[in-house]
Amino acid sequence: MQQLSQPLIAIVDDSAVVRTFTAFLLANYDFEVVFDAEDGQECIDKMHQVEQLPDIVILDIEMPVMDGFQAAAILKTNWPEVKIIAFSNMNDSSSKEKILAAGAEAFVTKESDITEKLIDIINKIWQQNQIRIES
């Protein structure tokens, strides 16, 4: 099986610091960020505008204007092939269940050692996606 290119990623978080740090982290692993957004509505708007859709959206849950729960549901309705990684400080089981039910493939808490965990989850999701495409 041939290895295809790295996934294109979007980062959606209301914190500019988190967006910048996450983009820096991803660049160190040769992942390309196609866009970032500060809330769910901006993410949806950019999804309609970009030439190349992201393969993976790293999505915060708690944001103004449109939260991650609403954004995930809209993303899955309009772009079901896009994978979602919820990335949040909300670490309760109710929030995890709700975001996974809205369409997220994985949940990473910002309190964990995000570097290894986030990169590992991106790689697993991407590898699973490639196996489905090539099968």
CATH level-4 homologous superfamily = Response regulator
Quickly count the helices: 5
Largest sheet: 5 strands, parallel
Q: Residue ranges: pLDDT <50 for 5 or more in a row?
A: none
Strand neighbour order, sheet with most strands: 2-1-3-4-5
Q: In CATH terms, what is the architecture? A: 3-Layer(aba) Sandwich
SSE string, helices as H and strands as E: EHEHEHEHEH
Helix/strand/pairing category:
alpha/beta
Amount of beta strand = 15-25%
Shape: globular
Number of domains: 1
Distance between the termini: 10 Å
Highest-level CATH class: Alpha Beta
How much helix, percentage-wise, in residues?
40-55%
User: CATH topology, which one?
Assistant: Rossmann fold
The average pLDDT score comes to 86
Structure, described:
It is built from 5 helices and 5 strands. It is of the alpha/beta class. It has a single domain, classed as 3-Layer(aba) Sandwich (Rossmann fold). Strands 2-1-3-4-5 form a 5-stranded parallel sheet, sandwiched between helices. Helix 1 (16-28) links the parallel strand 1 and strand 2 (32-37). Helix 2 (40-49) runs parallel beside helix 3. The longest helix has 21 residues, at 114-134. The chain is globular and about 35 Å long.
Keywords:
CheY-like_superfamily, phosphoprotein, 135 residues, Rossmann fold, alpha/beta, Sig_transdc_resp-reg_receiver, 47% helix, single chain
Question: Would you kindly provide a brief summary of this structure?
Answer:
With 135 residues, the protein is of the alpha/beta class. Helices cover 47% and strands 19% of the residues.
